[in-house]
Amino acid sequence: MSIKTLDMDALAAQTGNVFESVAITAKRSRQVASKIKQELDNKLAYFEGFEPELEDPRFQEEQRRISVEFETRPEPTEIAIQGMLEGDIYYREATEEHGEFEDDNSLI
Description:
single chain; about 110 residues; mainly alpha; 4 helices
């Protein structure tokens, strides 16, 4: 995997704040990684009941094919950054109206 530069100004332009953009991108990256892991687990679950047959080269080849398929996919971070730059990620700012912030006095 080669190193790719990233235009931080373009990323920050999405939200107006680089740190907010990075936080949103990181959260989306975790969501994508979770989805990919679940998909891989579902595909490999097929092989769980075939203990003696796992020695069969056809089963090994199929498992290898599935593993290579998932290894060649873009990283979750790349997917999240691309989605952020293209404006495909929906996000909203937390506000007091939605009850997501506590009263500031409760922190004292």
